[in-house]
């Protein structure tokens, strides 16, 4: 299914459920401050969110957050517009795709969590002094077309004088969850992976992290919290309380060691070796992946547009002020 058809399908679902979702919100007793939160995947990349959960920052705001993994950008946005999620954590690009369909109840970005790409380039062999032009003539096991990781990969390559899919081969038909397994099984010379998969493969001696896409692509609103305009209109206090908790978690992460952070988020990753967890946390902190406040910066938003334009995925622009609301973030910081 093409990206356009997927988005059209999402909008169709949205149109069908808007009325009923609105009724559901109004019928919910005010004493039950529940938030259904869908995340695009479960990753240490989203550490401040898990800190907010484990440290009880949502509970302090009178919120009960029900977190679930939607497993993919399209599924995550579908969860929002169908009414099965109140808030979602996913890339800003999804709201741009939806905005292009002129929805009656647009998806609004209201709080930023990560400000860089969170993926790494993993090589089959160790490379002491990696240069991006080493991708020329090679096979890269990449991410899905239209998704932010793949767009960032192509953006970085172009900046380094590489013509993606011309100077190299990019495989894009492997599911996100199976990328690490496919690489270990022998597919590709390089693979683009998120943590902790990259570090797990490295610890097993089956691959080696040689570069960071986040360092070389610049800051952008990579992963943000999004809700429907109708929820902002009907339950602004919920959105504010949610943002307050996220900001408190961001500040907590900023002011604590990776060892202390690991202690807090361990329940979210019970099967992950502590040494690997510390390595992952150190990588994300060292490259400034976690936003220290929830404001979605306009300059970073325009950098996102450049990344999408480079990939040929920005068919029409969505004005910043139409899909971004910084009121809750600014109030939380006050």
From TrEMBL:
The UniProt entry's sequence similarity note says:
Belongs to the bacterial solute-binding protein SsuA/TauA family.
Q: Which PROSITE patterns does the entry link to?
A: PROKAR_LIPOPROTEIN (PS51257)
Give all residue intervals belonging to the SsuA/THI5-like domain.
Answer: 47-256
Q: Where is the signal peptide?
A: 1-21
Could you give one GO CC term from the UniProt record?
periplasmic space
Keywords associated with the record: Signal
Source organism phylogeny: Bacteria, Bacillati, Bacillota, Bacilli, Bacillales
What subcellular locations does the record give?
Periplasm
Transmembrane regions listed in the UniProt entry: none
This chain's protein is named NitT/TauT family transport system substrate-binding protein
| Organism listed in the record | Tepidibacillus fermentans
Keyword Signal among UniProt keywords: yes
């Amino acid at each position: 299914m093409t990206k356009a058809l997927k988005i059209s399908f999402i909008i169709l679902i949205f149109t069908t459920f808007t009325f009923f979702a609105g009724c559901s919100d109004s019928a919910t007793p005010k004493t039950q401050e529940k938030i259904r939160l869908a995340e695009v995947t479960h990753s240490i990349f989203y550490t401040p969110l898990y800190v907010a959960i484990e440290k009880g920052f949502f509970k302090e705001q009178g919120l009960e957050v029900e977190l679930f993994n939607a497993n993919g950008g399209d599924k995550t946005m579908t969860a929002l517009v169908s009414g099965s999620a109140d808030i979602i954590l996913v890339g800003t690009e999804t709201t741009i795709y939806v905005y292009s369909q002129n929805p009656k109840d647009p998806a609004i970005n209201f709080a930023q969590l990560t400000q860089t790409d969170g993926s790494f380039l993993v090589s089959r062999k160790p490379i002491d002094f990696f240069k991006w032009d080493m991708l020329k003539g090679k096979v890269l096991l990449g991410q899905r077309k239209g998704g932010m990781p793949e767009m960032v990969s192509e953006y970085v390559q172009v900046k380094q004088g590489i013509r993606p899919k011309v100077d190299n081969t990019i495989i894009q038909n492997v599911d996100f969850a199976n990328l690490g397994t496919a690489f270990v099984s022998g597919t590709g010379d390089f693979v683009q992976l998120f943590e902790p998969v990259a570090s797990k493969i490295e610890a097993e001696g089956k691959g080696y992290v040689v570069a960071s896409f986040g360092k070389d692509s610049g800051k952008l609103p990579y992963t943000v919290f999004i809700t429907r305009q109708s929820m902002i209109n009907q339950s602004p206090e919920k959105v504010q309380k949610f943002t307050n908790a996220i900001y408190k978690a961001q500040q907590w992460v900023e002011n604590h060691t990776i060892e202390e952070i690991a202690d807090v988020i361990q329940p979210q990753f019970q099967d992950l070796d502590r040494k690997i967890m510390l390595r992952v946390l150190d990588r994300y902190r060292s490259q400034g992946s976690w936003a220290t406040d929830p404001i979605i910066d306009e300059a970073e938003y325009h950098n996102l547009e450049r990344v999408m334009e480079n990939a040929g995925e920005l068919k029409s622009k969505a004005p910043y002020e139409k899909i971004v609301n910084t009121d809750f973030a600014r109030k939380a910081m006050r």
